């Protein structure tokens, strides 16, 4: 006689299969080239930016700080990845099909978390490797490298809930574009540019987000130059606390947000969305 599988195990197995299916096109063929291009772009920009940032009391080149920041701060990319995949699944009708499956929204959210965290973590590890060999930083010891990988994984997990919250508002091409602009702005302000040189209201927003603290930790671990930091000092314990808070509180809030978002998935809504996109495309 067949026995029903425990619910958590069956959900995790289904989520793992979904994550594998999502990861495969990103890691082979054209997807792999996209990863290499993104990592190479960060390393090239870091390599050619060999002067210090003007106006800051920094002894390191902009490129050195940027590369060290991206090892952790590139976790912000997970928000754009979740937004892009949510948009594709929504206009393709995948979310509507998932909605009618038992525990479909929960399985979809776990699978999407697994696939995007693994994808971004691979890219962060490649950035760390490239930084060690091609950028003017002190070659990190094995202990420092492991610490940076741990920070990268922690940062990706902390940024994932924010990606789900933002993607819940994607209902068409325009809202998707707005979502992308918001994600790029948070990534740029928290990782690509000295946050200490930005207006006070921007610093206030970044202080409560994982986008700033992710890069903060790897700048602390790899460079030790606090010129990009809010307040001009490193706070590694506070940074870890903020990232853990986003993981614990963020993932506790993701299920109700996802369920509420999936309740809006209807056949009529999908038809209207696809008709609008065809009209906007001139088809």
Written description of the protein model:
This protein is mainly α and 283 residues long. It has 12 helices and no strands. The protein is globular and about 60 Å long.
Give a topology summary:
Elements: H1 7-27, H2 30-48, H3 62-73, H4 77-91, H5 94-99, H6 104-134, H7 142-167, H8 173-192, H9 200-207, H10 210-222, H11 236-262, H12 267-280
Helix pairs in contact: 1-6, 2-3, 2-6, 3-6, 3-8, 3-10, 4-6, 4-7, 4-8, 6-7, 7-10, 7-11, 8-10, 10-11
Kindly summarize this structure in a few lines.
The chain is mainly α and 283 residues long.
Instruction: Give the helix level as a range of percent.
Output: over 70%
End-to-end distance, in Å?
54 Å
Mean pLDDT, to the nearest integer, reads 87
Name the quaternary structure.
Answer: single chain
What best-fitting shape do the alpha-carbon axes yield? globular
Strand content: under 5%
Annotation, overall tally of beta strands: 0
| Count of helical stretches | 12
Key words describing this protein structure:
mainly alpha; 283 residues; 75% helix
């Amino acid at each position: 006689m067949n026995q029903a599988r425990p619910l958590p195990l069956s959900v995790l197995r289904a989520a793992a299969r979904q994550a594998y299916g999502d990861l495969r096109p990103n890691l082979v063929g054209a997807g792999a080239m996209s990863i290499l291009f993104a990592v190479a772009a960060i390393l090239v920009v870091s390599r050619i930016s060999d002067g210090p940032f003007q106006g800051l009391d920094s002894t390191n080149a902009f490129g050195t700080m940027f590369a060290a920041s991206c090892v952790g701060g590139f976790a912000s990319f997970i928000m754009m990845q979740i937004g892009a995949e949510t948009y594709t699944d929504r206009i393709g009708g995948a979310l509507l099909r998932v909605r009618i499956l038992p525990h479909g929204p929960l399985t979809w959210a776990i699978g999407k978390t697994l696939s995007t965290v693994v994808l971004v973590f691979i890219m962060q590890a490649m950035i760390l490797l490239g930084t060690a060999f091609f950028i003017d930083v002190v070659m990190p010891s094995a202990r420092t490298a492991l610490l940076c990988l741990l920070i990268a994984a922690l940062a990706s997990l902390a940024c994932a809930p924010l990606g789900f919250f933002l993607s819940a508002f994607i209902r068409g091409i325009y809202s998707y574009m707005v979502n992308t602009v918001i994600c790029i702005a948070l990534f740029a302000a928290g990782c690509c540019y000295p946050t200490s040189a930005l207006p006070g209201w921007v610093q206030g927003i970044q202080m409560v987000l994982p986008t700033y603290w992710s890069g903060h930790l790897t700048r602390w671990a790899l460079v030790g130059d606090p010129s990009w930091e809010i307040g001009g000092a490193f706070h590694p314990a506070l940074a870890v606390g903020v990232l853990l808070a986003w993981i614990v509180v963020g993932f506790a809030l993701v299920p109700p947000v996802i369920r509420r978002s999936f309740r809006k998935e209807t056949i009529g809504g999908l038809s209207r969305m696809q008709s609008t996109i065809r009209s906007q495309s001139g088809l």
